[in-house]
Design a protein that fits this description.
heterodimer, A: alpha/beta, Rossmann fold, 6-stranded parallel sheet, B: 325 residues, alpha/beta, 2 domains, 5-stranded mixed sheet, 11 helices, 17% strand
């Protein structure tokens, strides 16, 4: 069992308190309107239904390559992205559907992308791991473990250079923390006081290798101490707590240019990718325990029921709308055309896509 | 025309572009307080300040990747590699991220970064510090690769690279930094992808770039004086985009070709050129395409032997005589 995969009953009291609503009274949450709370819930449900629909599409062989599902981790992306202001930016790894939806990308374009269609957000050129939406301050969607972390640091560098009061959130999984590029980025961020939060979504397993079999030391976020950076951990199954924790670090980043490492405890219900039979490295019981006791949608739904924000009718409506949206996205993707061979060499160079502004001469493509 | 060293010409290009566009920053190991490992950036910290001339730790993957990320948000970073040989530790950032991000985003993201520094052997620093990765870089669609041979070209091409919206990899040469040449006083931006005929001739075309241009010109002098052979020297200046038309025009004039490059021969820039020349000018050739490259082994340390491992005027002379025989 993973080092972090401790059943809830065995956890320290603080964690239990956190998921039962302590963070709901944090200022960043206390000021949420009823509609805003419902929207957080809706986003998590929409992500889950989208992921379930994309899984079915994969099983129907509509999707090629890899499909890394975010099911179980919804509170992390939704909680973090709900805090983004106009000068805040995010970048993430290949389990990127949740973040893309959390920042507001259109599900039709997302589904069309995994179907490999020209109407996809990357025109069918990126696939599941490479969603981008710069207009929403969302910079991918990156396939190489940890490779996006220096880029996220660069977003923060640009913000500071331009004297903008924003921060960058650079997401990674627990498997990325042992990559050299991550540590190089930590050092640069701390050295230059860059407004970046390194968010470790610790779902317990780097592919099929548990934290205790892959990462030395007492904790993943604690490694920040070596660089003199702030760090924190967070019960990532509770969207309130994700918001309360991240708000604290985002404020320090935006206002004082203090970077931080935040380890958010979460769990994925599905395999590393859908090609992972998920039978060798964890037990069914462990997954079931998480589903039963720590499901982020169920926890938040219950909290909002208790607050009188949600009722059964609204819950049902949100869920059926989310299912319909995912279905509509799949229909759109299905009906959309594939790119043509003529599209292969588009979007390679700015210059060849803007021929009237081209200044270079000579051949850019070869055969 | 003023005479500048290659080093001063690069510095002049940096100075002009830093002055012109406040989004241009220069970063790298020792570029600021130390004034550059090769003194290319001497005086720039004093002129532009520490926000724009930035010393980085020895952390190529980190700072190159950071530059790529910053470029996505509109900064125009010029990142100095102390040696292009060190690009191997930043390979993922350079060739997965910089080269691919525009494509994978369906054209939504640009990466206007310049990565520059020396890429050459001949300085007795052994195999780890003597790589010439222009072929490796140019193998990646999405990037531009520039290898200037003269002070004038270095200045004009670097200015073009900094203004370019695609990632540009600019490969200099430590053995050229002290070479002097005329550089126009007025601003000159030399478009990427335009080869330059450095010497006109009628009997043999030498296609080359970088420091090998100097070796080829030296050999061409000897060939003219001692062998009555007229050599045309075509300096590619940029590898990608590639000005194959200028090469082909020269081949149509001389009908014989020698490619000279400081590359290991397997799958080199010369390999690509030889393929293209035979494919597009087969009927113009009076003989097989010849090639002179670095002798195919890791860079040897032993100083007198390293000279022989690399192209040099005597090796070019010999290869040229074989090509016209």
């Amino acid at each position: 069992m993973s080092k972090k995969a401790v059943p809830i009953a065995d956890q320290k009291d603080e964690a239990k308190v956190a998921c039962t609503g302590k963070s709901s009274t944090a200022p960043i949450n206390a000021k949420l309107s009823k509609e805003e709370k419902i929207e957080l819930h809706r986003k998590m449900v929409r992500i889950r239904r989208f992921e379930e629909r994309s899984l079915r599409a994969y099983q129907a062989k509509k999707i090629g390559g890899f499909l890394h599902l975010y099911i179980g981790q919804e509170a992390v992306a939704v909680g973090c992205c709900s805090l983004m202001g106009s000068d805040d930016h995010i970048i993430t790894a290949y389990r990127d559907h949740g973040h893309a939806m959390a920042v507001g990308m259109d599900t039709k374009a997302l589904m069309a992308e995994v179907y490999g269609k020209i109407t996809g957000c990357s025109k069918g050129k990126g696939g599941s791991m490479h969603y981008f939406a710069p207009s929403l301050n969302y910079w991918g969607g990156h396939g190489i473990v940890g490779g996006q972390i220096p880029l996220g640091t660069g977003l923060a560098y640009a913000l500071k250079y331009k004297k903008l009061k924003g921060a960058a959130m650079a997401f990674m999984g627990d498997g990325a923390v042992n990559q050299g590029a991550v540590h190089e980025a930590y050092n640069l961020a701390a050295l230059w006081n860059l407004p970046v939060i390194f968010v470790i979504e610790n779902n317990g397993y780097s592919m099929g290798t548990s934290q205790e079999r892959s990462s030395a030391g007492p904790g993943l976020a604690q490694r920040a101490e070596a660089y003199g950076m702030n760090w924190g951990t967070c019960f990532g199954h509770d969207v309130y707590e994700v918001r309360a924790t991240m708000d604290k670090f985002l404020t320090l980043a935006r206002e004082k240019h203090q970077p931080a490492v935040v380890e958010i405890d979460t769990y994925r219900y599905r395999g590393h990718s859908v090609a992972d039979p998920d039978k060798t490295y964890r037990t069914r019981e462990e997954i079931e325990e998480y589903r039963r006791t720590k499901d982020p949608i169920q926890l938040f739904q219950q909290a909002l029921l208790d607050e009188g924000v949600l009722n059964d009718a609204i819950i049902e409506q949100i869920d059926s709308e989310a299912k319909a949206e995912a279905e509509l996205a799949a229909d759109f993707a299905e009906a959309s055309p594939f790119p043509t061979p003529d599209d292969i060499q588009k979007d390679v160079y700015w210059e060849t896509d803007n021929p009237d502004k081209r200044t270079s001469k000579g051949r850019l493509f070869f055969d | 025309m003023p005479v500048l060293t290659y080093r001063e010409a690069i510095r002049a290009a940096l100075t002009e572009e830093l002055t012109r566009d406040e989004n241009v920053v220069l970063m790298g190991e020792e570029v600021a307080q130390f004034h550059g490992a090769y003194k290319v950036s001497e005086g720039l910290l004093e002129k532009f300040g520490p926000d724009r001339i930035v010393d980085t730790p020895i952390s190529e993957a980190g700072f190159i990747g950071m530059g790529v990320g910053a470029s996505m948000l509109g900064i125009r970073p010029v990142m100095e590699l102390m040696f292009w040989s060190f690009s191997s530790v930043a390979f993922d950032q350079i060739l997965n991220n910089a080269a691919n991000v525009r494509y994978m985003s369906g054209g939504l993201i640009n990466c206007p970064i310049v990565i520059r520094g020396p890429a050459n052997g001949g300085t007795n620093v052994g195999a780890t510090h003597s790589h010439t990765p222009e072929n490796v870089l140019a193998n990646h669609p999405g990037v531009k690769v520039i290898v200037p041979s003269t002070a004038r070209d270095a200045k004009g091409l670097l200015k073009a690279a900094i203004r370019d919206n695609d990632p540009c990899f600019f490969l200099e040469n430590t053995l050229l930094y002290g070479e002097k040449g005329e550089v126009p006083e007025t601003e000159e931006v030399i478009p990427l992808g335009v080869a330059d005929v450095k010497r006109e001739g009628t009997d043999l075309t030498i296609v080359t770039y970088g420091r090998c241009v100097l070796h080829s010109l030296a050999a061409a002098e000897i060939l003219e004086k001692e062998h009555d052979i007229s050599v045309e020297v075509v300096d590619l200046r940029t590898i990608r985009p590639l000005d194959i038309d200028t090469v082909l025009a020269s081949v149509k004039k001389t009908h014989r070709v020698l490619i000279v490059e400081e590359q290991k021969p397997f799958a080199s820039v010369g390999s690509q050129l030889a393929y293209m020349i035979q494919r597009e000018a087969f009927d113009e050739l009076d003989g097989p395409i010849h090639r002179l490259a670095t002798i195919d082994a890791p860079a040897i340390y032993s100083p007198p032997v390293e000279i022989e491992q690399l192209p040099n005027p005597q090796r070019v002379l010999k290869a040229a005589l074989a090509a016209v025989a």
